[in-house]
Specification:
Elements lengths: L1 H4 L2 H53 L3 H11 L4 E6 L5 E5 L5 H10 L1 H4 L8 E8 L7 E13 L2 E11 L1 H51 L14 H36 L3 E6 L4 E4 L1 H13 L9 H13 L3 E7 L2 E12 L2 E11 L1 H37 L5 H33 L7 E4 H10 L2 H6 L3 E8 L4 E4 L1 H17 L6 E9 L2 E8 L21 H5 L7 H11 L3 E7 L3 E9 L4
Parallel strand pairs: 12-14
Antiparallel strand pairs: 1-2, 1-5, 3-4, 4-5, 6-7, 6-10, 8-9, 9-10, 11-13, 14-15, 15-17, 16-17
Length: 592
């Protein structure tokens, strides 16, 4: 029931029904009032005509008997009359029944009707008189008393009365017909109201179902448009709206996907903030950055550093873009924060974090490289200039001193050559311009051949050189033999140069489970623990005073690291100060 009243059908039906009911009620009341007055006036006019006619008949007929027959024929079945003289005595009575005497008495004693003897106009009155069938029951009658004249002299009066039951019966029949017509009109109105409402609401229900489908994401829903009225126009407009919404969503989806792909492919971290500082949107680099910040700020409030919060508050408060470079948790970031607007209202901000750590490192490496190259070249150049000036000035007196100076100049020139060559090799390796020529190579013969080149040098330095390549077995590995020889030469040469007389250098190789390992161990002075992480950097020397005298450039380990990593491997250093050092490089390979 509530569903009907809450629907358009129920509301239209109730509105039309109330309107028609109100009109029918007004029409019925007015019609019944009109018919009641009409029948009452008709009865009164009939009585007047009959009274006037009786008066004329009595005046015109000298023979009373003849007038009685005429009057009797004139009166209807439900109409009675009595004629009285001036004294109030009944002269004649017509259509009287068994209660006629009581009716005469009531009529003659009624004060209003008695005025007919003193006035020249009829007197009309409705009154209850005894029923013709039952003396104890009263019925409504319409009574008219009219004077009788003989010339200008009042000769008596005639009382004509009619039972109103017939009139009331007519009124009841009329009322029944009117009410029946109103009921039929009410039923027909209900039917046509429901029919009209259904004709209106049926397409509206279809529009509602289509709107629900549209809200659920089914944008292909079409509403039929059989009608060519306002509802049909509404359906056409709805279908057009659905197509436009689908098109707009597709465009928005494409733009969103494009924006998401752009954000995902960006190497810079992008974070979108709400006005209150909460995070709305991030890309993968930003997710990694936030995770790092959260791990570093476990004991602090918030996920982002306080410096970022301050910049964000400044952007929101002053509506201006902020850009700065800050060190955060050991990294350098170029940070740009711009406001986001919703109309003229700032709804948040977007921050772009560009990691400048590598750039700072490269700048430092470049600066250190220039400083180190300058430092390394300064000493041999100074020595070349000094000794060459001594020779040109003729300061040297003996041939033996001259040969010594020439030897020093030659050694320093060769040292400068090695420095330049090593620098070029390292630059080509780091820039990717050096090509590897990999070929299947037997590991054991290669290791033994390379190590054998240093036997004489080890003997001259009173150092024991031991080679153990049995662990490599018959393994054959795809590698660039010349480059690996450069790595091993550097490691063995470093080990011999940094091992004192009476010491020992051991070269050991193994190939197992797809991994080639070559280790060079010595019993030299070792490397301090704090220097181990830096030994593979260019120009780094754990003991610069000791290394310079041994002809090192500080680039050998950096070159070895790049060559090994170019083969997909890695290199590490294990050392204890005063106990010796072990350099190990590993290269994965596919077993044959």
């Amino acid at each position: 029931m509530n569903r009907i009243w809450n629907s358009i059908v129920g509301k239209l039906w109730a509105t039309i029904l109330l309107l028609v009911s109100f009109v029918l009620f007004i029409v019925s009341v007015l019609l019944l009032e009109f018919l009641g007055n009409f029948y009452g006036n008709q009865a009164e006019n009939t009585l007047r005509q009959q009274a006037v006619t009786i008066s004329k008949i009595v005046d015109q007929h000298e023979d009373p008997t003849a007038s009685i027959y005429v009057i009797d024929d004139l009166l209807g079945e439900d109409t009675s009359a009595i004629i009285v003289d001036v004294s109030g005595k009944v002269v004649d009575a017509f259509h009287e029944e068994k209660n006629g005497s009581k009716i005469r008495e009531i009529l003659l004693n009624d004060k209003e009707l008695s005025r007919v003897f003193g006035e020249d106009s009829p007197v009309v009155k409705e009154m209850n008189l005894p029923s013709a069938a039952d003396a104890d029951r009263l019925e409504a009658h319409s009574v008219l008393a009219a004077p009788l004249h003989e010339g200008d002299r009042l000769n008596g009066a005639v009382f004509v009365y009619q039972n109103m039951e017939a009139v009331h019966e007519n009124i009841r029949q009329t009322n029944y017909i009117v009410l029946l017509s109103a009921f039929i009109a009410f039923v027909l109105t209900t039917f046509f109201a429901f029919f009209l409402s259904s004709r209106i609401t049926s397409p509206l229900r279809k529009l509602k179902e289509a709107a629900n489908s549209l809200a659920e994401g089914r944008y292909d829903t079409e509403v039929p448009t059989p009608q060519h009225d306002e509802i049909g126009d509404l359906a056409v407009a709805f279908n057009k709206m659905g197509r436009q919404v689908k098109h707009n969503l597709e465009v928005i989806g494409q733009e969103k996907e494009q924006l998401q792909n752009i954000l995902t492919s960006m190497t810079d971290a992008v974070i979108s903030f709400n006005r209150d500082g909460s995070i709305l949107l991030t890309n993968p680099p930003a997710d990694r950055l936030l995770k790092k910040w959260r791990d570093a700020r476990k004991d602090k409030e918030g996920d982002i550093p306080d410096e970022i919060t301050g910049m964000l508050n400044h952007v929101v408060m002053y509506s201006e873009e902020v850009e700065d470079e800050l060190p955060l948790d050991g990294q350098y970031f170029d940070i740009t924060i711009s406001p986001l607007y919703s109309g003229s209202y700032i709804r948040g901000a977007v921050a772009v974090f560009r990691d400048m750590t590598e750039q700072h490192r490269l700048d430092k490496v470049r600066t250190d490289f220039l400083a180190n190259v300058s430092h390394e070249l300064r000493t041999p150049i100074s020595m070349l200039i000094g000794y060459s000036e001594a020779l040109s000035d003729g300061i040297v007196e003996t041939e033996e001193d001259r040969e010594e100076m020439m030897k020093i100049i030659r050694d320093e020139a060769m040292r400068m050559g090695r420095l330049v060559n090593d620098t070029l090799d390292l630059t080509r390796l780091e820039s990717g311009y050096m090509r590897l020529y990999k070929e299947p190579t037997a590991v054991r013969p290669m290791v033994e051949r390379i190590a054998s080149k240093f036997i004489q040098k080890a003997r001259d330095a009173d150092i024991t050189l031991k080679v153990d390549a049995a662990g490599a077995g018959e393994a054959i590995v795809d590698l660039d033999e010349d480059r690996i020889e450069q790595v091993m030469t550097n490691l063995i040469d470093n080990a011999i140069r940094h091992t004192p007389s009476g010491g020992r250098v051991e070269v050991k190789s193994s190939a197992d489970d797809g991994l080639l390992e070559v280790a060079v161990a010595d019993t030299g002075s070792g490397i301090a623990e704090e220097d181990l992480t830096y030994v593979f950097e260019r120009f780094y020397k754990a003991d610069k005073a000791r290394t310079r005298g041994k002809g090192g450039t500080g680039l050998g380990l950096a070159i070895a690291k790049n060559i090994v990593e170019s083969h997909g491997g890695w290199i590490r250093a294990d050392s204890r100060l005063g106990k010796g050092t072990t350099m190990t490089f590993s290269i994965p390979f596919e077993e044959r």
